[in-house]
């Protein structure tokens, strides 16, 4: 998968999460969670774009770590949304699957670049 294909996957996830968040209840908890998950998902997408423009291996690793943290937070909020029954699991499962797939790719990339750095 190319960087551009991965960048597009981040953007699609971001748009899908914004769409889902806009459908959350207008209750206090629904709105707080909506803001949090929008923030973390958009941050992961924006920071992945920054990864693609990293100036050094160290910069690349640091930016990838931010992406990892933001994806992990996005997955956390998706889990909370399901656990609190704000959204049914079947409606959140595709978002959760894509978040976890992207997270796996980022973690694998971090392992690879760190391994190559020590070689």
What does this protein look like?
By secondary structure, the chain is an all-alpha fold. It has one domain: 23S rRNA-intervening sequence (de novo design (two linked rop proteins)). It is 85% helix and 0% strand. The chain is built from 4 helices and no strands. Helix 1 runs antiparallel to helix 4. The longest helix is centred in the C-terminal third of the chain and has 30 residues. It is elongated. The relative contact order is 0.15. The mean pLDDT is 94.
Question: What's a concise summary of this model?
Answer:
Helices cover 85% and strands 0% of the residues.
Give a quick set of tags describing it.
119 residues, de novo design (two linked rop proteins), 0% strand, elongated
Topology:
Layout: H1 3-22, H2 28-51, H3 57-83, H4 89-118
């Amino acid at each position: 998968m190319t960087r551009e294909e991965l960048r597009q996957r981040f953007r699609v996830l971001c748009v899908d999460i914004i769409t889902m968040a806009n459908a959350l209840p207008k209750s206090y908890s629904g709105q707080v969670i909506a803001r949090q998950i929008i923030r973390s998902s958009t941050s992961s997408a924006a920071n992945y774009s920054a990864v693609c423009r990293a100036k050094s291996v160290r910069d690349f690793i640091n930016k990838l770590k931010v992406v990892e943290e933001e994806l992990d937070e996005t997955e956390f909020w998706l889990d909370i949304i399901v656990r609190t029954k704000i959204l049914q699991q079947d409606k959140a499962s595709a978002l959760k699957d894509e978040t976890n797939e992207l997270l796996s790719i980022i973690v694998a990339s971090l392992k690879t670049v760190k391994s190559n750095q020590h070689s």
